[in-house]
Predict the structure.
Amino acid sequence: MATRMTSADVLAINSSEEIVGIITQLESVFPELRLFAAGAVAKTSYKTLVKTAAATAGFRGINEGLARNRATRVVRNVDCKYVDASWDIDDAAVSAVEWGDPFAMETEDSIEAQMAAVCTQIWYGLAADAKGFMGVGTLLATTDHPMVVDAGGSTVAGGTSLFAVRSNERAAALVWGKDGRIEAGEVKEQQLYDDENKPYMGNFRKIAGYAGLQLTDYTCVGRIANMTDEDGCGLTDDRVATLLETFPSGKGPDFMITSKKAVGQLRASRTTFNATGAPAPYPTDAFGVLMFDSSAISVAEAILTASVGDEGTT
């Protein structure tokens, strides 16, 4: 059986130990990096087959025919987009540092920002950055989508979602282009410019790579949307159960990711029904499916409506 690879595993093949080490440390902040199955592709764009309807079969008698049927699949493009975390720093700032490595600190901050951009794009797609790749939110963009549960919120205040994902190469997976390489150049001294185009000397480092999301089965992701600060519109076990019911039998999600705010709502709802009156523990799962909070999940989401739109491509 093939070993399931995470983003750190994939990037370790062609990226530096320094970069991979930083990404591994960020897995606690952005659990998407270790939860999503990941792979590398040589190019930055390729085609894949996406199943949009299941195959059918039936019984037939001897010498009787049966209409042949196969799963409905469509060809979709998977585009890995360039995510740039290059940084520069003033020579004067570097020379003022008496303790610590300013170049290492800039690199760590930049890689964190880069992974934050990738993980945010996973969930919100073009709504997060129009120059990025298509995300889960591009597909699950309306409340009448069969894989979306509406929590009923109607104001943006505190608006957040929970996403449930089945992740493997035939479902949802992170894809890293250019053979899975995060390019990290040498630190170079060069002339920089301020907002008034006045020059000063500083240091520059290129850090960049290509990332994308592959969705080959539209039943591999689900969403509880419109969770807000309004009474009765938070995350509850009932809503999680309803979401899990949208997945095909035997093909449920591997994990759920939401905001820390929503996890707090779930804990509070469990405390209400606690027979001892003691606060419920911090939730880490629901109905046997592991649950994680991620800094990439917004708490100021736009309210989803029931208008049917284009599914888009992934």
